[in-house]
């Protein structure tokens, strides 16, 4: 199975015999990326606390930056002056830019949504700014991302069915306008499915976005506080209405079991600040969940963060030492936790790809589900 357009391509190489999971290759002008893939979040053109070369060495081939944030600071002209986003941030692989719809909801002050776009106050200085579908496309094209996302309205949870229905009309219009004005031939454009937590509205959105036609499809509006069981139920239903030859991207999900369960449903791409954010809060992803190094029980714990991990942090330092760094607010502590957590996600994605190719994803899922 192949999906090719303007230098962007998606090829499925193997399928799991017992689930809809597949592994493949995304081809962009900046290189290939193996799927299923996880994108570390580089919101401000930086994966927090690690160098670009470390991100690559950890096994990641694509990162996510945010057009909204870069538009406000340092500004598109600054990035253009450096030769584009890749040169600006020193990253040689593919970059996907999120359009900023989620940030308008979560960070914008005094937000006013109309058909024309989103008017809101900057979280930096309170200045009122305006973001339209056309401006979002212009920003992302000028930044030079390999994959751009349409501008969408992301709603909080819970929200009424009436409000979600109104938003679907707006998102359909915005997606069409993004598609119409997008001109950069070497940049793929992904549509976004919304629909809140209503199964039939998710179907309506998936059908309408597919009808417009994009090179890939994001599943937005998840990880906003809903139960994980509901997320998986809606993801499974939504995927059945999206083109099978295009990559499917579950936006904002990054906990290991959630990623694995979603891969089994047929998701190809993920992003989340989860591994880097909890690292900055002193937490490490370990077999069966996570631990918080701020807990006093780790004061004299001389074991590695995770016995099964082979990352730099686990190979050289103990929980006691990293806790000491965290409690002392030493930057090294947060760096080591970030390296460890990203390594855990990278290792998981490699295991998922190997299991799919070998036809034993079910075995891997049973093991992950059984972990305490």
Largest sheet: 8 strands, parallel
- Strand portion: 15-25%
Q: What number of domains?
A: 2
CATH architect. name of the largest domain: Alpha-Beta Barrel
Assembly level: single chain
The separation of the N and C termini measures: 38 Å
Query: What's the count of strands?
Result: 17
User: Going across the major beta sheet, what is the strand order?
Assistant: 5-15-14-13-12-11-7-6
Q: How many helix segments?
A: 15
Rounded mean pLDDT is 96
CATH topology of the largest domain: TIM Barrel
- Overall geometry: globular
- Give Rg in angstroms: 20 Å
Fourth-tier CATH superfamily name of the largest domain = Queuine tRNA-ribosyltransferase-like
* CATH class placement of the largest domain: Alpha Beta
Spans of at least 5 consecutive residues with low confidence = none
Helix content: 40-55%
Q: Helix/strand-derived class? A: alpha/beta
